[in-house]
Amino acid sequence: MSNQVHIVEMGPRDGLQNEKTPVSVEARIAFVEALVAAGLNTVEVGAFVSPKAIPQMASSDAVLRGAGHIKDAEFHVLVPNEKGYDAARAAGAQVVSVFAAASEGFSRANINCSIAESIERFKPVLARAKTDGVKVRGYISCVLGCPFDGEIKPKAVADLAVTLWDLGCYEISLGDTIGVGTPLKAREMLRAVGAELPVANLAMHFHDTYGQALANLYAGMEEGVRVIDSAAGGLGGCPYAPGATGNVATEDVVYMLEGMGVNTGVDMEKLLAATNEVAGLLGRPPVSRVASALNAKRKRLSGL
Ligand code: HMG
Ligand code: MG
Q1: Measured in angstroms, how far is the CA atom of residue 221 from the centroid of ligand 1?
Q2: 1 assigned to some structural domain
Q3: Around Cβ 234, how many Cβ atoms within 10 Å?
Q4: Which residues contact 75 (CB under 8 A, 6 or more apart)?
Q5: pLDDT at residue 107 above 70?
Q6: How many domains does the chain have?
Q7: Atom 26, ligand 1: residue with shortest CA distance
Q8: Ligand 1 centroid distance, CA of 250 (Å)
Q9: What pTM did the predictor assign?
């Protein structure tokens, strides 16, 4: 397999958006700093959405501004509409992500509109971003199943991916929001999208609810996809996706890739430190298998 994989770190956004324990702006900025120091140079740091809908992402402007001093890193933020775009730009955003869904049920639950209406909301965002020289990433949720509508046809995902691409998104991130996918289904979906768009511009955003995320990522890598979204510690989940748990953990992805001879540029010790720090703030150990294993090993070696 080619030695080039790009990890887009989700911890400070997807990772924290569903947490009950509030995390301060200072701690969110420190988390971003720690992740970049660990070698994760693309980090989604917040969301410019309704603070009534997602209070955890309030003050994303302060987080983005606070991370502004960090060099050699690219920061992403979610924007659902022009209001979000205005606020993101005022805080200095250079990359924004719009987010659609492959199912009507999830679109309605998450952003309170139909898929077609969401595209209408994104059009002015993409038009303005083009004028402003801002990059726009496009997410599609529920690509392997929806908590409301059930099965999702790969063609529905491919059609929506083409729509977002034609609007000007530079990369389409395909979200298994509720982590129900299995490798052959992931492959089928990626083949359907890859038949329409360059595989180099696709990303895999797999939640690990059923423990399938690494296997699904491997299947996607066999299809040539080389961009992976993951969250330190396996944090994450969407409050509007019943039953969803965290993103695939960055440690687990890094461990798998390095074991396959793929150089990620990530310092595992520093990543583990960042994961443990945020887990401490949330008051529970990280769920990721690799973080648990490395923490247990450390404990053994220190004779505790
Ligand atoms: P709406 O109710 O349709 O919008 O919400 P509206 O225009 O009627 O406005 C309603 C209220 O929201 C108004 O405030 C607006 O000002 C405010 P009020 O008058 O009630 O005080 N508002 C905003 N405030 C801040 N920023 C904005 C904004 N827009 C409107 N940009 C809306 C539509 C999208 C805003 C709402 O439904 C929302 O914020 N939803 C949250 C969606 C969300 O963040 N979900 C989680 C992230 S997506 C995800 O996790 C999936 C992903 O990880 C991929 C995967 O795993 O599949 C990306
Ligand atoms: Mg997600």
Answers
A1: 33
A2: no
A3: 29
A4: 32, 43, 44, 45, 64, 67, 93, 94, 95
A5: yes
A6: 1
A7: 49
A8: 27
A9: 0.98
